[in-house]
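Collaborator request, handled under Task 6.
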Amino acid sequence: MKPSKFCVRVFRNIKNILSEFWMAIRKVLFSSQTWKEILIILGLSTVIGLAANFGLIKKLMTGEFRQAFVSKEEFPGLVFISLQEAEDLWFNQQAIFVDSRSEEEYGKGHIPGAVSVSLEEVMKGKKNLLEQLPSGRLLVIYCEGGDCLTSLNLGKLLYKKGLKNIRIFSGGWSEWTAAEKPVERDVKK
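C-alpha cells returned to the collaborator:
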C-alpha cells in the first residue's frame, strides 16, 4: 500500500470517528432528559450545600461574621499570631498574656502567667480590669479558640482605649492545650 493511500485512509477514519463523536455529543446536549438530569443534580447539590453549611449561613444572616473581621486601617496594631509565635513570646517573656475567657474558665486552666481580663466582665462595666494592663507592653490576647471571638473583641476594645501593641492568638486555649503546652490552674482554697 502506498503511503498516500494509507494517509487518506487514516484521515477518513479519523474524520468518521470525529463525526460520530460529534453526533453523540449533539444527541446528549440536545436531549431534554440530559438537561432534566443536570437540573436535578444542581438542585440537589444546592440543597445539600445549604444544609451542610446551615450554621455558617445562620451566622452570616445574623451578622456574627461582621465582628470577626478586622480592618487594618482601623486597627493597625492588631496582629494575628500562630501557636509557635505565641509560645516564643511566652517562653521569652516578651509579652503579657491576657485570657479573655470567663473567670470560671480561667480558674480551670490558663497559660501560665496570663492575666484574666474577661470580656464579659469588662462589658458589664468592670473597667478596673483594664487598669491592670500596662500600656507599653506587648499584649497577647487569647480565648477558647475556634469560633470564639472574645479575644478579637477585647483586642479591638483595648486598641480603642489606647493600647496599640496587641497580638491575637486565634488558636487560643484549645490549640495551646492540644499541643500540650504548659498550663496553670487556680487552686481553690
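The cover message to the collaborator said: "The chain has a mean pLDDT of 85. The two ends are 103 Å apart (CA to CA). Please let us know whether this matches your experimental observations."
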